[in-house]
Amino acid sequence: MQLACGMLAEARQVFDGMPSRSEATWGTMMGGLIDAGRPRGALALFRELWEEVGGDAAPRVVVVAVRAVTALGSACAGQQLHCCVAKTGMYEDQYLSCALIDMYNKCGQLDEARRVFDGMPQKSVVAWNSMLASYSLHGCSEEALDLYHSMCEGGVDIDQFTFSTMLRVFSRLGLLEHAKQAHAGLIQRGLPLDIVGNTALVDLYCKWGQMEDARNVFERMPIRNLISWNALIAGYGYHGMGQKAIEMFEELIAEGIAPNHVTFLAVLNACRFSGFVEEGKRIFQLMTQNQRTKPRAMHYACIIELFGQQGRLDEAYSMIRKAPFIPTANMWGALLTASRIHKNLQLARLAAEQLLAMEPQKTNNYVVLLNLYINSGRQTEASKVVDTLKRRGLCIHAACSWITVRKKDHRFFFKDSLHPQSSEIYRKLDSLLKEIKQLGYVAEENELLPDILPDEQKTSKVYHSERLAVAFGLISTSLSTTLRVTQCHRLCHDCHKVMKFVTQVTKREIVIRDGSRFHHFKLGTCSCGDYW
Predict the structure, then answer these.
(1) Engineering a disulfide at 436: which of 37, 395, 501, 510 sits with its beta carbon 3.0 to 4.6 angstroms away?
(2) CB-based contact 66:81 (threshold 8 Å)
(3) Which CATH architecture has domain 296-396?
């Protein structure tokens, strides 16, 4: 009672005055010290206990000591405790082994955590979950996936925590089918997801363009929090479904839930991606009326890009000049993008100068400026930008696109010939290009592309990485399969045009997730409205 009320001195006085103390008493006192932010005091108390009883300490008390080491973040102290466990043969205690795994995980010692896990004679689902969480936390997605497969092959029933952990892994690796199968397994066993798991599932479906599935999960959630709403609103926005995002935002307000900065960013992004200028202005104005949600730089960047998308460059620049803080790189970047699209060289040069001063090592800023000069026929200025890149030791790295087919990732680079099916891929791509030319496709000229280095501009531009990935997808999947390609660079204009024509010819849907947004191509149109 005294520990729960924060009366540490009084609790210690009672503890010290006890004529005899059980191990439960020692554990309670140690736990109270840890909860009060004094893990060193808890370890000192454990040392006293160890001197009294030696190796006869109960495993549950050692668990509390491991908690103290975890809070302290000391791998050295943790290894000493681990030695005590090994010497006294306490490995059979599931709680203690899981506590050690958690301790090594939080100390960044994944190899030691795995050694404890592998040494357990019996592994409960909690032990499996602890090790999975360790891999997931440290970004070891492949290792987590391998362990998950071992778990399933061993007949261990996954629970809600397993699913919530693996959702992050599936999301990173783009394994949408794995997530669906795991979710179906939970439903079959009658195990409902908690709010964290459901929200993670909504977020996963949104990230991979499955908006109907995301909405179905959201509607069936018994309890929702603001994070759940934000995930769905953001998903609608990124996939060009601005009207639905705004409807969800209005529904959120109607239910009496107060939006936060993330909510406003999600709905402003939706307006930006869908070109809803007046709605964007209205929502931005709502933010300014509430002291708790005053617009930040990221919200200004959205509005700037929204104005820029509609060619209202004066209003976009005015937002930068009127901002109540020093404009950020994101704000200048939004103006540079708009100036590039609408070929306003004066504003573009101004924005580029500000960006290059803020981020002199960021290659993409130079690429945007290069594109602008090349498209305007200013070869002298373009050459100066290339010289600046070389002088600063920067280079345009060859970009990569990848597609997952039958649970395996296939990566492609510009003019890539490493894939075992290269000859088939190139034949398919050449055939597609012939077909789309008959429909009116004309290649874009004068654009520096992220796949191609400046010295290679005069070589063929038809074999960009995303085109190779799509061609491979077409020859490797059924006619009804939607192709999903991911790439780290911005989709070039010519590839964007090609994808629209390809969907007309093949009647396939193509979803490309590039460095800025999702592009949903269907029957010759794209969800971005040709602005990205």
Answers:
(1) 501
(2) yes
(3) Alpha Horseshoe (1.25)
